[in-house]
Amino acid sequence: MTDNQKYALITGATSGIGYELAKLFAQDHYNLVLVARNEQELENKATEFRQQYGIEVVPIARDLFQREAPFQVYEQVQGLGIQIDALVNDAGQGQYGEFVETDIYRELDIIQLNIGAYVVLTKCFLKEMVARGDGKILQVSSIGGELPGPLQAVYHGTKAFVTSFTEAIREETKDKGVTITALLPGVTDTDFFNKADMNQSKLVAEGSKADPAEVAKDGYEALLAGKDKIISGLKNKAMVYSSNLMPDDMVAANMHEQGKPVDESK
């Protein structure tokens, strides 16, 4: 055990933005509870963090596609007697393609992961934070929640939920000593696009991708500063701002064009 007893729980912590956020918490001497599906990857990252930062790391292997999994995560943390001072909901996936053709069961899994797990973990840990008048929550959403997403209809819909949900509970708890921040990245260089099977999308194939370390830094600094919401990257800020000035159908058409496979869009 280290002297420091602060703990951060991070989902999707073995790669991408979640991994980079875990590094930032570790640098600030937080102990970590890392949640991901792959047990071997979790163990590897746990060992890395222990050796590099001299902190305690608790790996929890759970498949957050499963409805009961976030409850099991909470129960395991409770069973260990750990107080979570910072919760990071980061795990999320998407699926590329026209809604009439995509796999509904994969989409239901995505809704469970991107919405269900966020809601359960937030409720469980927020209750504790409010009761003691202290705590931080970072919800990794997406600029996709601000824009309609043809060819990623369900993913964009889930992120609209996350941002709206975060804004609502922030208002409810604003006088309770708890900080709740939404991080909205754009296209970021992570494994997301492989899992979503959308590397052929024009947006991904031809566009620039943000560095997940930079995105994580934006989110972490916003959380520590007590900000409500942070859109990571100037280009993404401009994109969201300009879309707010355009009619919704024009935004959707524009996003549809950007999202088309490279060979179709020529």
From TrEMBL:
UniProt entry keywords in alphabetical sequence: Oxidoreductase
Question: Which SUPFAM superfamilies is this protein grouped with?
Answer: NAD(P)-binding Rossmann-fold domains (SSF51735)
Q: Which Pfam families match?
A: adh_short
Name the source's superkingdom: Bacteria
Record-stated family: Belongs to the short-chain dehydrogenases/reductases (SDR) family.
**Which named protein is this?**
SDR family oxidoreductase
Q: Which source organism?
A: Hymenobacter volaticus
